[in-house]
Design brief:
mainly alpha, elongated, disordered N terminus
């Protein structure tokens, strides 16, 4: 039977799952196409490895959003400082973060060591490791590159097709569940500002959409103080999930998060 099915598929008598999904999307039946992908996934996915790859892909998306909102916070700080200087008063709520000052100090020390080493030898020095400042264009580029690597290594199949199809849709992140999660941690979905429906940093040439993380300038203004996590793993506005949690897709929260980012059903 598998041989006959393979021959029939090659002859064009039977359609492959991806062909049927494409046809459903062309007919305006996007949800039906996603349901078909989900059905295929539940039947044939190697759970442990696939769960890990999905976790890494979602985390890579969150890392980009983390850097985008850090960029927005940095630009807002600069605007507030310029406005305060113009009116000769201190900024109302944004301040130059201690983390930025600390990282800049490290970079200055690294540059000093680099110059000292160069002056004491005729051999060209190796590139010294440096940290990317959160919110810098370099940090955003690194996050984008990281996501590209995760996506390129993600196995072809129903989960990858579902992810790509979902993320091509405008407003894919505005599901009722995602909005309620954002509101629950004090994000902009708890207010009428509408930040989650707009680009998170309009000053960037690429438009990025998503829900609030700790760097969100609007959230900082609403709560009255800034939060500067050292990394995305320290961001308190994200759920505290470990990789091992993704080995159990029957976990209610994991299944909801996966549905929000992969299936959109």
């Amino acid at each position: 039977m598998p041989l006959l099915r393979s021959l029939a598929t090659k002859a064009g008598i039977m359609r492959t799952p991806s062909d049927r999904e494409t046809r459903l999307e062309q007919e305006g039946k996007w949800r039906e196409a996603q349901k078909l992908r989900f059905k295929q996934y539940t039947k044939c996915a190697p759970k442990l490895d696939q769960g890990r790859k999905i976790y890494e892909l979602i985390r890579a998306d969150q890392r980009i959003l983390f850097q985008v909102q850090a960029r927005a916070a940095q630009l807002q700080t600069e605007k507030d400082a310029a406005l305060a200087l113009k009116h000769q008063k201190k900024p109302c709520w944004t301040t130059r973060t201690a983390k930025i000052a600390r990282l800049e100090s490290k970079l200055l020390e690294a540059n000093a060591e680099h110059k000292l080493w160069w002056s004491s030898t005729d051999i060209a020095p190796k590139q010294l490791p440096t940290e990317c400042l959160d919110g810098s264009l370099e940090a955003l580029w690194v996050a984008e590159h990281h996501r590209h690597n995760k996506l390129s290594k993600f196995p072809d199949g129903p989960a990858k097709r579902a992810y790509l199809s979902l993320h091509q849709r405008s407003g894919w992140h505005l599901s009722e569940w995602q909005r309620s999660e954002c509101a629950a941690v004090g994000g902009c979905c708890a207010r009428d500002c509408g930040c989650c429906t707009r680009s998170r940093c309009p000053d960037l040439p690429t438009l990025y959409y998503g829900h609030c993380l700790s760097y969100c300038p609007c959230c900082a203004k609403a709560r009255g103080f800034t939060i500067t996590p050292d990394s995305i793993d320290d961001d308190k506005m994200l759920p505290e999930l470990k990789l091992s949690d993704w080995y159990n897709e029957n976990d209610d929260y994991v299944s909801r998060l996966m549905n929000a980012h992969i299936w959109g059903l």
